[in-house]
Amino acid sequence: MAEEHDGLVTAGQARHSGFTDSVLARLVQRGRIERTARGVYRIPWRNAGRFSQYLEIVLWAKANRGPQEVAISHASALSVYGISDASPDVIHLTVPRTARLRREHPKGIVLHQSDLEAKDIAIHEGVPVTTVSRTVRDLLESGARLDLIRQAISDARREGYIDAAEARTLRREVERHIVALRQSSHPTQMEPGEA
Length: 195
Description:
Structural class: alpha+beta
Number of strands: 8
Largest sheet: 3 strands, antiparallel
Distance between the termini: 70 Å
Strand order of the largest sheet: 1-3-2
């Protein structure tokens, strides 16, 4: 089972296959599996794949009856797609607004709470990630660097993740965002007596 998921398995998946929690604990003690996060285990002899760190965070969020509609997002999504020069030092994960992840968060993740629809999530090399359009909108909303966003749109178009029409739509959204920023930073001032 873990072989199909880059060497990772959740406690829930193991239970579903007939492993008890005590068996998992013994496997950890004997070094047969490693506990990477609460509810997530790795087979130690399997080399981590290129996207293992992202998949591990997704499985952590989904473990123990966690929300299923989760996705790598924001600048981390750009890294998964390999578009733009974004290289975040944390992993961004979007979970539903109603998600209550009461367990301790692994280090190096930033949780965003927003309701994702099926059309907002793509599976890229086995990792649930926000679509390019959703990622661009999230980055605009969070105040990310505009040069990275523009580069991401161009790279996504070149790599075939979006078509020409979607690229034009996203570029227009970036321009509208810039105009809105300028207007909010320089509101028109009324002259005395104009009120």
